[in-house]
Design a protein that fits this description.
alpha/beta; Rossmann fold; nine-stranded mixed β-sheet; two-stranded antiparallel sheet; binds 1-O-pyrophosphono-5-O-phosphono-alpha-D-ribofuranose
Length: about 220
């Protein structure tokens, strides 16, 4: 069977609510930041299924022993926020993944060419091939930024099927590119918006997430 990119849009009331708040042009920066944090939390919760490493354990209760399942802290877990906007989602993700290492990736999309350029990369030269990686970026538009992030990870030894992408609004051009290059990959998003305008902005989208998070 040929593998295909899997894109999950969890039908959860909290995800729908915070997406609506984030989309609203009248939402001030402080509330927009909260909305993105909440989306990071709930989408990471969904993404952690069958991704976060666990191991069997025997638990001693006050009365008896019983089998249990605990997080396997020996398997490395990493979060890669794509700066700047991915930092907003990181805040929520980190509350669920307190032991994860955070590797910042600074990408700036050129407003004319729409090509991303990298200004910061704190990743190690090589990752343990077992490493579970969560990439956070609220918007997948043309796909240039997410493809650049994927390439940085894969060339450092990360297995694409161990990567989860958490975003808020995903657009078909980005999803199509990911599907061709990384068919085993899984994306968690609050919504899929069909339209990308001439300036590379997602419509209806939520505006410029980086500017709205940081009030610039
Ligand atoms: C935005 C967004 C994504 C990227 C998506 O970041 O947060 O990273 O553009 O566009 P693409 O799919 O066409 O590459 P931007 O470059 O505006 O930087 P910022 O997060 O610092 O605002």
């Amino acid at each position: 069977m040929t593998q295909q990119l899997r894109v999950y849009v969890p039908p959860h009331p909290l995800i729908k609510h915070w997406l609506a708040v984030a989309r609203d042009a009248a939402t001030p920066s402080v509330l927009f930041r909260s909305a993105i944090t909440e989306l990071g939390r709930w989408l990471t919760y969904e993404a952690a299924r069958e991704w976060l490493p666990t191991k069997d354990a025997t638990i001693q209760t006050p009365l008896d022993t019983c089998p249990g399942t605990v997080i396997d802290a020996e398997v490395p877990v990493a979060v890669v926020p794509i700066l700047r906007a991915g930092l907003g989602l990181l805040e929520g993700a980190q509350t669920l993944l307190p032991l994860a290492s955070i590797y910042h990736l600074g990408l700036q999309r050129n407003e004319q060419t729409l090509q991303p350029s990298c200004y910061l990369n704190s990743m190690p030269e090589k990752f343990d091939p077992q490493t579970r990686v969560l990439i956070t970026d609220p918007m997948l538009a043309t796909g240039g930024s997410i493809m650049a992030a994927m390439s940085e990870l894969v060339q450092r030894g990360v297995e694409p099927s161990l990567i989860r992408i958490v975003c808020v609004v995903a657009c078909p051009p980005a999803l199509q590119q990911l599907n061709v290059a990384y068919p085993g990959l899984i994306v968690y998003t609050a919504t899929i918006d069909e339209t990308l305008n001439d300036q590379g902005f997602i419509v209806p989208g939520l505006g410029d997430a980086g500017d709205r998070i940081f009030g610039t």
